[in-house]
C-alpha cells in the first residue's frame, strides 16, 4: 500500500494545489512513483482522460508534475457549479446530473465507497499518494459527513500538513483558529504547519513561528516564499485571468472575453509565455478596445453568458470589430455563441426550457443542447483555413471535447479529427469558419507546438509586421516550471521530516 501525506489549508487559495504539485515533482525526482488525489473538487476547469472521462484540471497538473498519466481515480468527484446554489455532479468521470447544494450535501455520504475504491486503486499502484483537501477543515457547518478534508484523512489514515496564507495577513490566527476548531482526533492528524506565500526577511517571522509551535504543540514544517512560478492552479484562478503586460516586444494583442462562468481558461495560457503577444481578459465593453484577435472561451452556462454579453454591450462591440476585419475565435461555448441559434429543449442550460435564443450570427451553425455530454479526446489536422489564420491550414491539432450541445454546420469544417472514446476511433469534422470568424469544440487547440506561433504570425502579417515568431514548446516550458517549483519547496520545507512522517526512512 502507498505511503500518504495530505495537504489541507486554512482557507481556499492558501496554495494547497501548488504545494501538492511541488511535492509530487520532488517525490518523482527522488525515484518514487507518486500520484495526486483529491476526493472532491469544485471547478469549471476540467479535462478529459484517454478513456473519455472527466476530471478536474488541478489533478491533471499534479499528475504532470508527478510524471504519470492522469486518471479519473485521482479525482473521483468533480462538482461544476451551474449557479450560486447548485452544481453538475460528476462521479468517476461521468455526470450524474445537476443537484442543488442542499440535495448534494444529503447525498454525498453515499459516494464514500466510490472515493475509497478510487483511493485504494491508486494505493495499490503507486509508492506515494499526495492528497489535497478543499477549502478549510474547520468549516464547522460542513464538517458533518466530510469527505474531502479530515474525513478523507481518516479514510486514508493520512498525516496532515496544514497550510496558512501569510500574504493575506493573519496567518497565525488562521493556523491557531483552524486547529482549535477541530476535534482532538482531528488535531492529532496534523503533524506539521506550513506558512505559505511569505515575502521578506524570515528572521522577523521566527519569533511567531516559535510561539505558534508552543501554543499548538505542532512543529512548523516550513516557510514557503511567494513563488514566481507559472503553473496552472485552480486556487489562483484570478491571477491567471489578469493577462500579460505590454512590452517592447509586443507585436499583437489578444483579448479573451471573461464570462461570469468561464471554463477551461487554460486554453489560452500558451499565449501568456509568448513575448510577441499581449493577452488581456475583458468583461466590459469599454475595456475591449481594438485587439488583433478576440477569443470567446468555453462557458458552463453558454446561453446565460451570451445574454450577459448582449446586455452589457460586449456582443455589439465584438460584432463591430468583426465587421472591421478583426478575427474572432470561439472555443466550445464560445463557438456555440457565434452561431445562428442556441436551443435548450430539455433545460440542460437554464430552467426556462424549452428555450431558443438568437446567437451572434457570425457562423452558419445551429446548436441544440441534449441530455448527453460529449467527452472525448481528439487528434487530427486543420482543414484549409482562410483569412488571417490561413497559416493554420494542414497543421496537426489535438485536444479534448467537453460539451452538452450538438452543432449542425452549413459550411466546411475547421478541422478533421479522430475522436478516441472507450477504445474506439471515429472520424468526424469539427468547427467551421466564415470570413475571419473561427469556431471549434477542441479545448487545448493552441497547445500543440506550432499552433500558437501560426496564430501570432497571422496577426502580425495582417498588421504588416514582418518576421517570424520564436518557436516555443509549451510542454518543455511547463516542465521547467515544475522543476523550479520543486527546487523552491526543497529549500523551504523540511523534506527529511516529511519523509519520516510518511514512514519512509531511506530515499530511493
From TrEMBL:
Segments forming domain CobQ/CobB/MinD/ParA nucleotide binding: 5-228
Active-site residues, Swiss-Prot/TrEMBL: 332, 443
Gene3D superfamilies cross-referenced by the UniProt entry: 3.40.50.880, P-loop containing nucleotide triphosphate hydrolases (3.40.50.300)
Source taxon at top rank: Bacteria
CDD domains reported in the protein's UniProt record: CobQ_N (cd05389), GATase1_CobQ (cd01750)
Pathway(s) served: Cofactor biosynthesis; adenosylcobalamin biosynthesis
Keyword tags: Cobalamin biosynthesis, Glutamine amidotransferase
InterPro entries reported for this sequence: Class_I_gatase-like, CobQ/CobB/MinD/ParA_Nub-bd_dom, CobQ_GATase1, CobQ_N, CobQ_synth, GATase_3, P-loop_NTPase
GO BP terms in the entry: cobalamin biosynthetic process
Molecular-function GO terms, alphabetical: ABC-type vitamin B12 transporter activity; catalytic activity
Residues covered by the CobB/CobQ-like glutamine amidotransferase domain: 253-449
Family (UniProt): Belongs to the CobB/CobQ family. CobQ subfamily.
Function as written in the Swiss-Prot or TrEMBL entry: Catalyzes amidations at positions B, D, E, and G on adenosylcobyrinic A,C-diamide. NH(2) groups are provided by glutamine, and one molecule of ATP is hydrogenolyzed for each amidation.
HAMAP family, alphabetized: CobQ
Protein known as: Cobyric acid synthase
Species the sequence originates in: Lacrimispora algidixylanolytica
Amino acid at each position: 500500500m502507498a505511503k500518504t501525506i495530505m495537504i489541507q489549508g486554512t482557507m481556499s487559495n492558501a496554495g494547497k494545489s501548488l504545494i501538492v504539485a511541488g511535492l509530487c515533482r520532488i517525490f518523482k525526482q527522488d525515484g518514487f512513483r507518486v500520484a495526486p488525489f483529491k476526493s472532491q473538487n469544485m471547478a469549471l476547469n476540467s479535462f478529459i482522460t484517454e478513456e473519455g472521462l472527466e476530471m478536474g484540471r488541478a489533478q491533471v497538473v499534479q499528475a504532470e508534475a508527478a510524471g504519470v498519466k492522469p486518471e479519473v481515480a485521482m479525482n473521483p468527484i468533480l462538482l461544476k457549479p451551474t449557479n450560486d446554489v447548485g452544481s453538475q455532479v460528476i462521479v468517476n468521470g461521468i455526470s450524474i446530473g445537476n443537484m442543488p447544494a442542499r440535495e448534494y450535501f444529503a447525498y454525498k455520504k453515499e459516494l464514500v465507497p466510490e472515493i475509497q475504491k478510487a483511493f485504494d486503486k491508486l494505493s495499490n499502484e503507486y509508492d506515494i499518494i499526495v492528497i489535497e483537501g478543499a477549502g478549510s477543515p474547520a468549516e464547522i457547518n460542513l464538517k458533518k459527513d466530510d469527505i474531502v478534508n479530515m474525513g478523507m484523512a481518516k479514510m486514508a489514515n493520512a498525516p496532515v500538513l496544514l497550510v496558512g496564507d501569510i500574504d493575506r495577513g493573519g496567518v497565525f490566527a488562521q493556523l491557531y483558529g483552524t486547529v482549535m476548531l477541530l476535534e482532538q482526533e482531528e488535531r492529532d492528524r496534523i503533524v506539521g504547519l506550513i506558512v505559505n506565500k511569505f515575502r521578506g526577511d524570515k528572521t522577523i517571522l521566527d519569533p511567531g513561528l516559535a510561539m505558534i509551535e508552543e501554543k499548538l504543540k505542532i512543529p512548523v514544517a516550513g516557510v514557503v516564499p511567494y513563488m514566481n512560478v507559472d503553473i496552472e492552479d485552480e486556487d489562483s484562478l484570478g491571477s491567471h485571468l489578469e493577462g500579460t503586460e505590454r512590452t517592447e516586444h509586443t507585436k499583437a494583442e489578444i483579448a479573451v472575453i471573461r464570462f461570469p462562468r468561464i471554463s477551461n481558461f487554460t486554453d489560452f495560457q500558451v499565449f501568456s509565455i509568448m513575448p510577441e503577444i499581449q493577452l488581456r481578459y475583458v468583461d466590459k465593453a469599454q475595456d475591449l478596445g481594438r485587439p488583433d484577435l478576440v477569443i470567446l472561451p468555453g462557458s458552463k452556462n453558454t446561453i446565460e453568458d451570451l445574454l450577459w454579453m448582449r446586455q452589457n454591450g460586449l456582443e455589439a462591440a465584438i460584432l463591430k470589430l468583426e465587421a472591421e476585419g478583426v478575427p474572432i475565435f470561439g472555443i466550445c461555448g464560445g463557438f456555440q455563441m457565434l452561431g445562428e441559434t442556441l436551443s435548450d429543449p430539455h433545460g440542460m442550460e437554464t430552467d426556462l426550457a424549452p428555450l431558443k435564443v438568437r446567437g451572434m450570427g457570425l457562423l452558419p451553425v445551429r446548436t441544440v443542447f441534449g441530455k448527453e455530454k460529449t467527452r472525448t479526446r481528439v487528434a487530427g489536422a486543420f482543414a484549409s483555413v482562410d483569412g488571417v489564420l490561413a497559416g493554420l491550414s494542414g497543421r496537426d491539432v489535438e485536444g479534448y471535447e467537453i460539451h452538452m450541445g450538438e452543432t449542425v454546420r452549413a459550411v466546411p469544417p475547421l478541422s478533421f479529427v479522430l475522436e478516441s472514446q472507450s477504445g474506439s476511433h471515429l472520424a468526424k469534422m469539427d468547427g467551421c469558419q466564415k470570413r475571419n470568424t473561427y469556431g471549434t469544440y477542441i479545448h487545448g487547440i493552441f497547445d500543440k507546438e506550432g499552433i500558437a506561433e501560426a496564430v501570432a504570425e497571422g496577426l502580425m502579417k495582417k498588421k504588416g509586421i514582418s518576421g517570424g515568431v520564436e518557436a516555443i514548446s509549451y510542454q518543455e516550458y511547463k516542465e521547467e516550471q515544475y522543476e523550479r517549483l520543486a527546487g523552491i519547496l526543497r529549500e523551504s520545507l523540511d523534506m527529511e521530516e516529511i519523509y519520516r512522517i510518511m514512514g519512509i526512512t531511506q530515499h530511493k
